[in-house]
Amino acid sequence: MTSRREELATNYFNCSERERAVFEAGIKLGTIYHQFVGTPVAAANVEILERAIEDGVRVQPFVKDAKVRISREALRRKKDEFDYQTLTGNMLIVELTVAVGGTTVVAGMDFKDDLHYPLMYVKEIIP
User: N or C: which end of the chain has fewer CB within 10 A?
Assistant: First the structure.
């Protein structure tokens, strides 16, 4: 079932359904990165933060599934009461599934050692 708003929005996209699905996946990954990088994180709240990111992205249009993991290896122990750590892009491991019409995109984001960069990329497109 397509809503009237979805039909109207489609008119603004001068691209194929496949291209739109990839676009939507990219927007969602960018949202995760830019909304949550800088959030205080510790071993005590890492699972809560992972679920909050997943639940937050799942309410966005076209998102069918989201899996978020924060690298436990990157977490460090507090040195003292004033020490805390914040989430960085290097710590995020994300797999996101977006569906537009009959096209499904599985996209990912994780730190690539060879690039020294938290890369957002398309893993699979299912027509």
Answer: N
Q: Are 56 and 29 within 8 A, CB to CB?
A: no
Please determine, for residue 119, whether its predicted confidence score (pLDDT) is greater than 80. yes
pLDDT, tens digit, 9 for 90 and up, residues 1-26: 678 998 899 999 999 999 999 999 99
Structure confidence at residue 1 (pLDDT):
62
Domain architecture of the chain: domains with CATH = 14-74+81-126 (3.30.1300.20)
**C-beta separation of 110 from 118 below 8 A:** yes
List the end-to-end C-alpha distance of the chain, in Å, as a whole number: 19
SS3 content of the chain, % helix, strand, coil (to 5): 35, 30, 30
